[in-house]
Amino acid sequence: MKEITYDELKNLPKESYKLIDIRDEGLVAYGMMPEAINIYVEDLESSKELADIPKETKLVFYCEIGRMSRELDDSLEYLEGRDCYSLAEGYVGYIRSGMKSQEDIEEKRKKAEASIQKKFHKQIFSQFAKAVKTYRLIEEGDHIAVCISGGKDSMLMAKLFQEIKKHRQVNFELTFLVMDPGYNKENRALIESNAKALGIPITVFESTIFDTVDTIEKSPCYLCARMRRGYLYSKAKELGCNKIALGHHFDDVIETILMGMLYGGQVQTMMPKLHSSNFEGMELIRPLYLIREADICAWRDYNELHFLQCACHFTETCTTCHEDGTTSSKRLETKKLIAQLKETNPFIEYNIFRSVENVNLDTIVEYKKDGVRHNFLEEY
């Protein structure tokens, strides 16, 4: 299929073409180009919406980085006789095109910081500070590796760490750590440009994790997540850090609780902090623990920021790379279930969260402590 760049597209009359986003639901949730319609690539052939577009209108298909749209066969019957194009560099190219001048970059940084201090102070910064205080996440003399994956959560977390450091209540150091496990060049460039636009001085190191898991058929994302965690711990320790910070938020926590029960047959949660079992003296902290995902999205959209859901080279065909290795299909299913339950019970999310704070051992048949299973009959 012929390619067209975003700059070339901007020079065409808007009424002469139609943008068609062929990515799946998971990626589309993280943003679309203005005035585009979403038709998943597997649904193109049977799409009435596509068939209803006038024949004289150019069809411009785009995916995440331009690879999947470029491989579309425009000789197929449902595209025959149409003037079809693939948008070079896809959605990522569109995002990067909006951050070219130094003035634009400086303006984005100032707006993002001001919104944390004012518009989103209560929903975001106050909840960040509350988690830090409640769970004692930052202590005197800490050197924290703020782990940035390139998504909205970790980028906001980095800005919140910068903001709380200004308050100088305790002395601590920050290293903004980005691991490149084998990103596509377009995705790595987007992470770097977003960090630059937000004024985050990142330290990038490389690994070959994606090459290692490339041939794994069963649960590659779980293995990838475990390996990434190990590499981050190792690099952070090498740089003199005693903690790594990950960007899991309130919604991740409650989804994990429910997924554990529905799919794992167990009651567990993401902890706000953990001691590493493999790296002595290292801890993992989750300072976004009390922040709602909807508020993170509102901050992102207010500042017209665009991030990737996953920057790995599976992105074109797979949206499973959640930080904890769980599949996006299961997590999305759980997210939808919670939203459905909320329609009749507005407190459902808070109740799920509180359920792991109010465990009554007198009503538990069995439980584990330090790996040892205990039964209620032991004290009956």
How would you summarize the topology of this molecule?
Layout: E1 2-4, H1 6-10, E2 17-21, H2 25-28, E3 37-38, H3 48-51, E4 58-62, H4 67-70, E5 84-87, H5 90-97, H6 102-117, H7 121-134, E6 143-147, H8 152-166, E7 173-180, H9 185-198, E8 202-206, H10 209-213, H11 220-238, E9 243-245, H12 250-264, E10 273-275, E11 283-285, H13 293-302, H14 328-342, H15 348-355, E12 366-369, E13 372-375
Parallel strand pairs: 1-5, 2-3, 2-4, 4-5, 6-7, 6-9, 7-8, 9-11
Antiparallel strand pairs: 10-11, 12-13
Helix pairs in contact: 5-9, 12-14, 12-15
Describe the structure.
The chain is built from 15 helices and 13 strands. It is α/β, with parallel strands linked by helices. It folds into two domains: 96 residues, Oxidized Rhodanese, domain 1; 233 residues, HUPs (Rossmann fold), CATH 3.40.50. Strands 8-7-6-9-11-10 form a six-stranded mixed sheet, sandwiched between helices. The chain has a five-stranded parallel sheet with strand order 1-5-4-2-3. The chain starts with a strand and ends in a 5-residue tail after the last strand. About 3% of the residues have low confidence.
How would you state the average pLDDT, rounded?
A: 88
Major beta sheet, strand line-up: 8-7-6-9-11-10
Shape: globular
Number of helices: 15
Number of strands: 13
The sequence of SSEs as H and E is EHEHEHEHEHHHEHEHEHHEHEEHHHEE
Calculate Rg over CA atoms. Answer: 23 Å
Task: Just name the CATH architecture of the largest domain.
Answer: 3-Layer(aba) Sandwich
How much helicity do the residues have? Answer: 40-55%
Tell me the strand percentage band: 5-15%
Q: Can you summarize the main beta sheet? A: 6 strands, mixed
Number of domains: 2
The fourth-level CATH homologous superfamily of the largest domain is HUPs
Ends apart, CA distance between termini? 72 Å
CATH class of the largest domain equals Alpha Beta
CATH topology of the largest domain: Rossmann fold
Which structural class best describes the helix and strand composition?
Answer: alpha/beta
